[in-house]
Amino acid sequence: MLAKRIIPCLDVRDGKVVKGVQFRNHEIIGDIVPLAEQYAKAGADELVFYDITASSDARVVDKSWVSRIAQVIDIPFCVAGGIKSIEDAGRILEMGADKISINSPALNNPDLINQLHDVYGQQCVVIGIDSFYNEATDQYEVYKFTGDEARTQKSQWQTIDWIKEVQSRGAGEIVLNCMNQDGVRKGYDVKQLKAVRDICEVPLIASGGAGEIAHFTDVFQQADVDGALAASVFHKGIINIDELKAELTSNGVAMRKRHGLTAQAEGVNP
Amino acid sequence: MSVVNTSQRQKIVIVNTGCANISSVRFALERLGVEVDVSDDVNVIKSADKVFLPGVGTAAAAMASIKQKALVETLQSLTQPVLGVCLGMQLMVETSAEGGFQGTGNIDCLNLMPGHVARMESKGVRLPHMGWNTVTHNNESLFKGIPQDTYFYFVHSFAVPEYEHTLASCTYGNTFSAAINKDNFYGVQFHPERSGEAGAQLLTNFVNL
Q1: Where in the sequence numbering do the catalytic residues of A fall?
Q2: B144 touching A, CB under 8 A?
Q3: What ipTM was assigned to the predicted interfaces of this complex?
Q4: Can B121 be counted among the known catalytic residues?
Q5: A259–B198 CB contact, under 8 Å
Q6: Beta-sheet strand order (sheet of B116-119)
């Protein structure tokens, strides 16, 4: 049975892992490679690295850390941030990333989704969406350039429409970051994720709001997402991944178990 | 965790298919302590002890790259153990239904063994099949020492149905081939290079064949 995924997200700036609250006030958490290794060993099913400065300041960003991560970890990982072309995506994938996630560049140039699909295949095309609930209009709005508060702006899209659009263009997975919840640890936006789930036929990853184990149970049971992404609860040691998975398993959510390999595997080929 | 037998130094070659997951396969083998060459040179590939055929993307794009590098006959002539990974496995059979986004009809593959790659039945399940899923197997060769129902990492929308050359199976909607084998040719639909300890064990088993 396909397991639901627990996905620690590491926001990267200038080669360091950082974390802000609602996209602001970034503090340095630590070096990328040892953190990646630590999460792989701790039982994470996948990792996402968001280069949060890349999309918003239009410079060439050093991505050599992608290759350093690929050398040490044996679980899949996705790289997001600053991927604006087929060539950008190709470089990241060649360095060993399994998937690339695009956000603002897809809003600026939706054809990029089709191109990435055709060249690298649907399986590695992840679309990240920053969705903000506007209380005044009671609508979910897609935002871009969220890595830089000064340049963050509302796009022309409502969230549901944009999700339909990216699927029709060949997206292989959608990470929905609910901006109102991000970094405040009050729980995922189950209501929004449920609405999105109804029209989302590709894997859907919940992002923004995880604060305790019950939040993960809620989002898997109520919104039927394929994975749950979180940052600060893991970085700050608030939630232990093994305990989280044990609790989810006991609540009937399918989780990957890591089998001990049998004695037969020792000392292969005399 | 077992170790690779390095007492006899092996020549391991990853075929440079021009596809994108070559680095992750190379890194996974290097973590096992073996040396690896990435090459599209006919003589280097032919003289290898073990050959890896990686691949991500579409069958159409990958076959176009292999043809452009004039490697089809070389790959068909290999007699040493060859392991195809993900799309690399799918290229081992006769034909694939995976063209481009608007692609129709079948793509000719390498025809290293019988079989056809079809789009997975999407009834009731989401595609791509992405994530960790359990594998049942015959306990031999590639899967020695790996318990039944061990989780491996999959990312794909097309698959080889279960058939006479199936070595291991996985179920997502329907049951399909998680691994295939005929003679010296082996293929795995999942990504052993991204499947934690179980994946490392499978790669070790292959290197030790």
Answers
A1: 11, 130
A2: yes
A3: 0.90
A4: no
A5: yes
A6: B107-108, B95-96, B116-119, B158-159
